[in-house]
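User: Predict the structure for this protein chain, please.
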Amino acid sequence: MGIWRNNARLLLQFGWFRLATVLVLLATSAAQSKNSCLDCHSALPDPVGVSQEKFSHDIHAQKGLTCASCHGGDPGKDDPDQAMSRKAGWKGKIDRAQIPELCGKCHSDPAFMRTFNPSLRTDQLSQYKTSVHGKRLAGGDAKVAVCTDCHSVHDTRPPSDPASTVNPVHIADTCARCHADASYMSAYKIPTNQFADYGKSVHHEALAVRGDLSAPTCTTCHGNHGATPPGVASVANVCSTCHVFQAQLFDGSPHKEAFAAAGLPGCVTCHSNHRISHPTDELIGTGDKSVCLQCHTQGDAGYAVAAQMKDQLAHLASSIGSAEQILGNAEQSGMEVSQAKLELTQARDALTKARVTIHGFKVGRMETDIKPGLDIAAKGYKAGQQALAERNYRRIGLGISLVAIALVLLGLRLYIKQIES
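Assistant: Here is the predicted structure, written as structure tokens:
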């Protein structure tokens, strides 16, 4: 009995010890999670109002950082004098000019950032200082963009978050807050139609309509933290990060030196910059929509080359169209033409390749790409003709067979009547 009594006493003591430990942990957790800043600011209007729900989406809050991480003070105190004590490091509102350095205290420290995200770059601040925004801020212009203008303030989300202001889908809208505001940008003497033009571009269609997150947006061409407008000489380098083959062909073309001598940017001269329309064969040649006529006039060598290249593209496109039509008619008639239709994709590939080869502006090289496509299109057209001829032959045979069957049935009917009579 004494042994059982001692064991019971020990179990009871251990139980009270565990309960006390849990209560201490809960009290500690409550003290650590207490945030008197949100208790007050959640009841205030914008721009100083910050709700718990809004702050919960912030990547910093999710990583365990608090208001004091940026503003200083002691969020664990209810007394405003203690919570906002200068002794506790309270800074209050951060001046715009100080924001990049404030963010950089953490984001420029590789050892500190490695504890949260080892793959995150830590050169954002140094990049920002090289940007137009950073240089103007250093010169005293407080209107330029700082970290919080693009990333938001108390609900900063990672770029991968679809609701983030720096998600690829939203970047153009974020930049447009300033760059599409004619009044705000009036002092800088730069256009404010970039966002409107981009909204009508093939790049915007790919990104916003088709959901292609790899499609170019503002930061793709201008950079993000080191944002700088590309100079005339570097535009081709910017475009070539995606359009590699076109850039290589242009570098070996006669236009390379001609454009450089005239001070013309390579890609932008023909395709524009923000409002890049879907390229069609009408952009080349001598038609009303041709960009070649911006420089070339009837009678010069360039005019003749443009006309030849357009004719080659039109010939191949027409040949492919004719082959597709006749093969389609044959297929609708029940004929087997799947192999010919499959081979015709090679002709379309040749047309696509020729449209890229245009950027070399050499007729001979285009002919090399066009000829295989023409041969395949001709083969496909011939296959369609043969299929339709086979169809007609079968129809004639079927007709003769039906007539023969009808005559036999008629003869049988007459024979039966004769027997019955």
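Confidence is low (pLDDT under 50) at residues 10-14, 19-32.
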